[in-house]
Description:
Blueprint: E1 4-6, E2 22-24, H1 27-47, H2 57-69, E3 74-75, E4 88-91, E5 94-96, E6 110-119, E7 122-131, H3 137-154, H4 163-176, E8 180-181, E9 187-189, E10 196-200, E11 217-220, E12 223-225, E13 231-233, E14 240-242, E15 248-250, E16 253-258, E17 261-264, H5 277-280
Parallel strand pairs: 1-2
Antiparallel strand pairs: 3-6, 4-6, 5-14, 6-7, 8-12, 9-10, 11-16, 12-15, 13-14, 16-17
Helix pairs in contact: 3-4
Amino acid sequence: MDSYIDIRTAPPAHKARRTESIKLYGPDAFEGMRRAGALTATCLDGVTDLVRDGTPLSEINTFVLHFAASHNARPATLGYKGYEYACCTSVNHVVCHGFPNGKKLRNGDIVNVDVTLVVDGWHGDSSRMYAVGKPKRAAERLMQIAHEAMMQGIQAVRPGARLGDIGHAIQSYAAFERCSVVRDFCGHGIGQVFHDSPNILNFGKPGTGPELREGMIFTVEPMINLGGSGVKMLADDWTAVTRDKSLSAQFEHSIGVTADGFEIFTLSPQALHAHGSSLAVARP
Length: 284
Ligand code: MF3
Ligand code: CO
Ligand code: CO
């Protein structure tokens, strides 16, 4: 039996703790997630102009740090399980959790920037792909497929659907496009906890898994590879790369389950999210 807790009526101890039960949130939580999500999305909009040939990844980290500080927010990744940066920057064959270090972006690179800002205790977690200059067609195509895979997963969300429906939608779309889905990472419940249950797998069987109920809040964040699905961890114990060195792309939204579907908390105020920010914007 899957269990759920209505956190509006649960004892306060449930609030800020990871629980095995799935939390069901009310209107105040949705309001908190809207604010955190909007701030994270605004921050990711601001990253757009930094993504150009020669920018060291550390500059993106500095931008996120200052952006958070000047908006009364905290980057959730800073100090999280020993992680030392305000965001993750994953370039080309890096699947996720790349360090924003001194490495410089180069024309033709594609990069995922993943930011989680905490506002009044609520976590807005989102990531996007950015293109440096003009990447090869295959790279552009992969970014579009990763965005569409996330949207296919999100569109499966409504009360009464099952968790497996989300993963199935993502996996079958990726397979249709002859791409593979990374199996080693998944989305997660979110709210006043960064990574809460349930896990939101990016593959699955339709009609299986816990039922989606109004008030659930979680992320959808598939990682899609041009080549095989295999990943390996670098010696730093964080950076995940594709085994076959093929390109990898990812998008992430934080969403809530509403009475008749879903609400996306991390939409770009400048509509830069749609096809990867730098793809949607005309660039010189
Ligand atoms: N933001 C990532 C996610 O989508 C988690 C990054 S954890 C870190 O869940 F420590 F690597 F930053
Ligand atoms: Co996440
Ligand atoms: Co994230």
